[in-house]
């Protein structure tokens, strides 16, 4: 079960989670990060690194953010992979 980036990441985009990920499953746009559900190996290393608690296992995504499961799939398919730490937006 892959992990999912949800709403608290929008406008934050702290990339510490990217640096602990053992695979290249994170993708980025101007305002947020997204996880490719095919590449994610469900290790959970990214979860405790997220300072805004935006990352959840797919089966534990809060109901109000369930649509982020599909958004991660769609966005990761068209956005570039991010593998390095960058300055957060906020």
Query: Percent helix among the residues?
Result: 10-25%
Number of strands: 4
Number of helical segments with 4 or more residues = 2
Q: What's the oligomerization state?
A: single chain
Q: Which strand order do you get reading across the main beta sheet?
A: 1-4
- Residues in β-strands, percent: 5-15%
Sheet bearing the most strands, described?
2 strands, antiparallel
Distance between the termini: 29 Å
| Global morphology | globular
Q: For the CA atoms, what is the radius of gyration?
A: 11 Å
The secondary-structure class comes to alpha+beta
Low-confidence stretches: none
Mean pLDDT: 96
In N-to-C order, the SSE pattern is: EHEEEH
Which key terms come to mind for this protein?
90 residues; alpha+beta; two-stranded antiparallel sheet
Write the layout of secondary structure elements.
Layout: E1 3-5, H1 16-20, E2 26-28, E3 33-35, E4 55-57, H2 67-78
Antiparallel strand pairs: 1-4, 2-3
What does this structure look like?
- The chain is α+β, with helices and mostly antiparallel strands and 90 residues long.
- Helix content is 19%, strand content 13%.
- It contains two helices and four strands.
- Strands 1-4 form a two-stranded antiparallel sheet.
- It is globular.
- The model has no long low-confidence stretch (mean pLDDT 96).
Quickly describe the structure.
Helices cover 19% and strands 13% of the residues.
């Amino acid at each position: 079960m892959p992990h999912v980036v949800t709403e608290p990441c929008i406008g934050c985009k702290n990339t510490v989670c990217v640096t602990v990920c053992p695979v290249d499953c994170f993708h980025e746009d101007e305002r947020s990060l997204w996880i490719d559900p095919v590449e994610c190996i469900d290790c959970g290393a990214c979860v405790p690194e997220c300072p805004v608690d935006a990352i959840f296992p797919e089966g534990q995504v809060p109901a109000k953010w369930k649509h982020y499961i599909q958004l991660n799939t769609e966005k990761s398919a068209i956005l570039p992979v991010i593998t390095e730490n960058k300055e957060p937006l906020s």
